[in-house]
Amino acid sequence: MSESADLFRHVSAEKAALYRSIMDVFALAKRQYRLQLRPDEVLAEARWPDHVPRIEEINAALAQLVEWGNLESHPDTARVSSLGDFYRARFLYRLSQGGEAVETALTVFVQTLHRRAELQTVALEDIANRLQALKVLGDASEPDVAKIHETLRDLVSVFESLAENAQAFMAGVARSVELQQAEASAVASYKRRLIDYLERFIGDLVRRSDAIARLIHSLEAGMDAMLQRVAEREARDAAPGDAHERAVSLAQYRQAWQERWAGLRGWFFRTGHEASQAELLRTRARAAIPQLLGAISALNERRSGRSDRSADFRVLAGWFAECADDREAHRLARAAFAINSARHFSLDTDSDGELPSSTRWADAPPLRIHPRLREYGEAAPRGPLPRVKDRSEARAQLARELAEEWSQVEAARLRLATGRPMRLSELGDLDTPAFGVFLGLLGEALTEQTGPEASVERQTSDGLFRIRLTPLAADSRASINTSLGVFSGRDHLITVTPTRDGG
After folding, report:
1. Fewer beta carbons within 10 Å, N or C terminal of the chain?
2. Could you write out the three-class secondary structure of 27-72?
3. How many Å apart are CA 315 and CA 286, to the nearest integer?
4. Do 129 and 201 have their domain in common?
5. Are strands 71-75 and 492-498 parallel, antiparallel or unpaired?
6. How many domains does the chain have?
């Protein structure tokens, strides 16, 4: 354990910058397939942060790195030209196995810290293409297992990259630290680029998620057979063993592929009552815009200058002097110092009644506070605890309201999701719940429409309905009367069909 810890000692040692410059040279040599280096080559090729060290310092640092286990040394006899050179210590150095592992770990660590989360619209297109290729390969009379295996590997690689970047984006997209230190012009430019970036990604995610979900649904019937063939192909490379070991190895390969497929499916389909990961990512991307605007607002507030309390009081004193009478001065005092009721403190435990929060402090009864509050910082009076309020009636009332609202929404869905085509002009009057359901369905259909004359058909994001929308003549008009007003526009033929299994 101590030997492994020594491998990282050069990172925090006194001459850490010198050691890291030397190790960077050996890491570069490893990437260039150079096996070993001499001290003078290290001195010439390294990037020194402050000043170029002497060759004696390089030799001492190399010896220390060998002692810690990061490097290995071997006698250098290639340049021996005299007996004195033979007896002089000359060494060739190369990365040890532990040193190579440390350099790999540090490289991954730095890349992870500097990685910027990306919303990969190209990955969505690649996933759709790979799924379409899988469907073609699976429908063949004699499936090509090698091509299916290759396509599945590409699909998993693209999907893992998409999921990893999406997770990093959801962890922190506002970049609040950078915004706090940026210039105003840079912030405005970044705001425009980010909003355009998010709008483009959200539109592509909404458009492609439905197509990907349809492809996954069409592959469900034959996916188990394809995963079985792929697992059998991978199991051929397993270490030799008896029949039981081969069966265990095959089961492990099959389980691994089933878990990958379940993860891909969960990205684009709801699991129980939980929303799909694509829907969560879309929600998070939408929430990034108000987060950015909030960060910009905070930046503008900081740049507006410090608050001068004395200047504020002088301005307030001038306003008091300009008041026409005491009544106007009292109104100004209540607004300036927030002189309102203090009933929200909940300190009056002896009071049986409840005063509304709008009660003026001058009209409310006095609030008696126990001296313990000032003396000990707590106001727990001695004696029995206050009575627990019975809120069963309020909860029952809330349950009744929720049930009534749910019944209204269900009635609206039954009215609209008939499975038969109907004109918008024939819908007639819609109440508030039905109009809300109608707007949601219409909005999802219009996001897929490529032009005002194009017909569109898609499944809703919750997987409950399939919508088909066909525009009618350009001069046709439809008007729908609602409690909020009249909704009017070009007439369309709409068909809303409920799905059998909800996705």
Report:
1. N
2. HHHHHCCCCCECHHHHHHHCCCCCCCCCHHHHHHHHHHHHHHCCEE
3. 42
4. yes
5. unpaired
6. 3
The CATH number given to whatever domain includes residue 109 is 1.10.10.10
Q: Are residues 76 and 152 in the same domain?
A: no
> Has residue 269 got a pLDDT over 80?
no
Are 233 and 249 in contact by the 8 Å Cβ rule? The answer is no
| Two tokens, residue 219 | 């592959």
What does the pLDDT read at residue 194? 67
pLDDT over threshold 60, residue 167: yes
Quick one: tokens of 355? 């005063």
Distance CA 480, CA 431 (A): 10
What does DSSP assign to residue 453? T
**Is residue 371 situated within a structural domain?**
no
* Residue 319 pLDDT: 92
b/e string for 84-102 if b means 16 or more Cβ within 10 A?
eeeeeebbbbbbbebbeeb
CB 457 within 8 A of CB 468: yes
Burial class (CB in 10 A: 0-12, 13-18, 19+), 108: exposed
> pTM for this one?
0.39
The phi, psi pair for 73, rounded to 5°, reads -120, 145
Q: What is the DSSP letter of 181?
A: T
If one counts every other C-beta atom within 10 angstroms of the C-beta of residue 183, the result is 10
> For residue 169, what are its two tokens?
């984006």
Give just the sign of the alpha carbon dihedral 218, 220, 221, 225.
positive
- Write out the two tokens for 282: 């879309």
145-154, 344-353, 413-422, 462-471: the lowest-pLDDT one: 344-353
Quick one: tokens of 237?
A: 């490379």
Local structure of 96: helix, strand or coil: coil
Judgement on whether residues 161 and 292 belong to the same structural domain of the protein: yes
Residue 395 and residue 232: Cα distance in Å, rounded? 57
Which phi and psi (to 5°) does residue 274 adopt? Answer: -85, 140
Residue 304 has what pLDDT? 58
- Give the span between the Cα atoms of 313 and 322, in whole angstroms: 14
Residue 459's identity, in one-letter code, is Q
Q: Residue 428: which of 462, 479, 377, 497 has the closest Cα?
A: 479
Angle (CA) 112-122-225 rounded to 5° is 95
Q: Which domain covers residue 67, as residue numbers?
A: 2-113
